Amino acid sequence: MPPADPDPKLRLRAADADDLLIVSAQLQDAIVPVTDISYLAAERTFVMVVNRFMWNAVPAAVGADASQAAGDGGPVFLRCHCGVRIGQVERAQTQALDLRDRSAMLDLLGLRHDAGTILLTFSGGPELRLRVSAIEVALEDFGEPWPTRRTPTHGLIDAEDLD
After folding, report:
1. Looking at the predicted structure, is the pLDDT value of residue 64 above 50?
2. Counts of helices then strands in the chain (DSSP H, E)
3. pLDDT for res 61
4. Parallel, antiparallel, or unpaired: how do β-strands 137-148 and 127-132 relate?
5. 15 vs 19, 132, 134, 137, CA distance in Å?
6. For the chain, first and last CA: distance in Å?
7. Residues 108 and 27: beta-carbon distance below 8 Å
8. Is residue 68 very low, low, confident or very high in pLDDT (cuts 50, 70, 90)?
9. N or C: which end of the chain has fewer CB within 10 A?
10. What is the 3-state secondary structure (H, E, C) of 79-101?
11. Which of 152, 81, 144 is CA-nearest to residue 122?
């Protein structure tokens, strides 16, 4: 197993659809408190703070050192706070999502670009649609990561189990 990254925090930028796929993969399964989402129309910027599951640290987290740190031999994974900024936003729309419900928590499934729109899709169907003049996305982890035993699950069923 390769040595653990001493600092698994990320700082990424996306300027095209291919870059956005990488950002999306790292934000998959982030927990997003609605209270930490803002559209700054005058600045043409969308921002949010998420609790990111650190997919980039999973290989290190399941190593012997992490298992021993857990006390009972189970794997320990990491989450961290992550700031996300999307610039060049001309319009923001929601579907099946009330941004006034400040107590709501969302599970981010992914981001994708389609015909001038960045689409943020959340578990259960809510969406944010950001009409953009260009792809300008940045994410940056901040603060100290914290351990978690919970790994994201999506209720997938193997096709052979459907027979």
Report:
1. no
2. 3, 10
3. 45
4. unpaired
5. 6, 12, 8, 7
6. 37
7. yes
8. very low
9. C
10. EEEEEEEECCEEEEEEECCCCCC
11. 152
Q: pLDDT class for 86, splitting at 50, 70, 90?
A: very high
CA dist., res. 163 & res. 161, Å (int): 6
Q: What is the pLDDT of residues 94-145, one digit of tens each?
A: 999 998 999 999 999 999 999 999 999 999 999 999 999 999 999 999 999 9
18-57 pLDDT, tens digit each: 999 999 999 999 999 999 999 999 999 999 999 999 988 8
99's torsion region: left (phi>0), alpha (psi -120 to 50) or beta? alpha
The answer to whether the beta carbons of residues 32 and 106 sit under 8 Å apart is yes
Q: Domain boundaries in the chain?
A: 11-145
What single DSSP character describes residue 71?
S
How far apart, in whole angstroms, are the C-alpha atoms of residue 43 and residue 25?
A: 27
Residue 157's Cβ-count burial label (10 Å; 0-12, 13-18, 19+) is exposed
Q: Are 135 and 20 in contact (CB under 8 A)?
A: yes
Hey, is 42 helix, strand or coil?
helix
